């Protein structure tokens, strides 16, 4: 079961029906994949510039030690994924740009198996996300500039045996139509 509750539904050819994403209280209506943590770090802003906390020891994000760190970029209107890991958990931190992160839970025994979750990462909103072992993920740059992400995976990179299973973005192996989540121009 792919959960497209945050993807616009077609209304018979005249356009797309908007879907409510928050309750009147501001709380999200969208389901989340078991183990995924989305975080909006403390952000300080004044006349001199801005500062946000990349690492603050919050156990929701940092329950395992930092053992490896790298930065990756995604060019404008490009995507990376699908990928999943069998050993490590990814801990992404957006440093610049705007990204859409698609997650799909295909883990046997997971209470959210079959759920697809969309997470929007931006400097003005959520910037950090924890992606559990076994969850498929894809990042899409929706902006006009390179997007930069720092990853703090829970395991160092193994150059001889990379912990990364890949699928093409338009694979039939996952019940996710990525085009349903892309902007309709």
UniProtKB/TrEMBL annotation:
Pfam families: dTDP_sugar_isom (PF00908). GO terms for cellular component: cytosol. GO terms for biological process: polysaccharide biosynthetic process. SUPFAM superfamilies: RmlC-like cupins. It comes from the Bacteria. GO terms for molecular function: dTDP-4-dehydrorhamnose 3,5-epimerase activity. The record marks 157 as: Participates in a stacking interaction with the thymidine ring of dTDP-4-oxo-6-deoxyglucose. Residues 1-25 are annotated as: Disordered. Belongs to the dTDP-4-dehydrorhamnose 3,5-epimerase family. This is dTDP-4-dehydrorhamnose 3,5-epimerase family protein.
């Amino acid at each position: 079961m792919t959960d497209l509750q945050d993807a616009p539904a077609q209304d018979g050819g005249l356009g797309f029906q908007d879907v409510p994403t928050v309750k009147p209280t501001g709380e999200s209506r969208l389901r989340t994949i078991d183990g995924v943590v989305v975080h909006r770090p403390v952000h300080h802003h004044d006349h001199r510039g801005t500062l946000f906390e990349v690492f603050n020891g919050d156990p929701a994000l940092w329950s395992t030690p930092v053992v490896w760190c790298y930065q990756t970029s995604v060019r404008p209107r490009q995507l990376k994924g699908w990928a999943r890991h069998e050993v490590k958990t990814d801990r992404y931190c957006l440093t610049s740009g705007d990204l859409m992160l698609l997650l799909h839970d295909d883990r046997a025994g997971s209470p959210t198996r079959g759920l697809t979750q969309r997470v929007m990462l931006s400097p003005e909103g959520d910037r950090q996300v924890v992606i559990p072992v076994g969850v498929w993920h894809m990042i899409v740059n929706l902006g006009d500039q390179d997007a930069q992400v720092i990853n703090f995976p829970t395991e160092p990179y193994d150059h001889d045996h990379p912990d990364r299973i890949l699928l093409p973005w338009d694979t039939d192996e996952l019940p996710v139509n990525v085009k349903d989540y892309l902007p309709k121009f």
